[in-house]
């Protein structure tokens, strides 16, 4: 695998190539028996390319690519029937994946724990999560500072049992057989922490209601 990755990415520095080779090795171990080298490499490199053009922190790109590739491979495994654990999967979508969808993802993950799966994405991903949203969530003891804006992909949308859209309009993907909800929620972009708090609380109420509808127990 190392030789293949080196050959494929001559446009990268030695350190970036090494980081991608290490990421590919981890992914190959995680998905052993499900996906092989070619699929792992394809998902890893296309994930890398998703972030390369807009990132100001190139040394962080291999890690972002690995995280996104892992999510996409998990989604593909669900779509193809390789992995069905009975847990509901919810996808939160907004325009930049920097505010509303990250608030929803943070609450859902915090409240559901291991009982459900949540992902998020944007039609036009930004370059970072809204700092006011990060601060507002920190007030509730939820850390979303390590999250990052990312696009959605077909396999991620197809793997979701519920797709919640927030402001992405016609750009939001539609697949037959998937449950869709549209939440009319104010955009936190350009707002202070004080202004984001009521948006945060609105998102929490909606997430709690969705978890109740899905039959997911909430202990917090």
Automatic annotation (TrEMBL):
Q: What Pfam families does the record tag this protein with?
A: LMWPc (PF01451), Phosphatase-like_N (PF21234)
What's in the keyword line of the UniProt record?
Arsenical resistance
Please name the CDD domains in this protein's record.
LMWP_ArsC
Instruction: Specify the Phosphotyrosine protein phosphatase I domain's residue ranges.
Output: 88-213
- Gene3D superfamilies associated with the record: 3.40.50.2300, Corynebacterium glutamicum thioredoxin-dependent arsenate reductase, N-terminal domain (1.10.8.1060)
| The name this protein goes by in its record | Arsenate reductase ArsC
Q: Which InterPro entries match?
A: Phosphatase-like_N, Ptyr_pPase, Ptyr_pPase_sf
Q: Which domain of life is it from?
A: Bacteria
Whether Transport counts among this entry's keywords is no
- Does the UniProt entry include the keyword Cell cycle? no
Matching PANTHER family: ARSENATE REDUCTASE (PTHR43428)
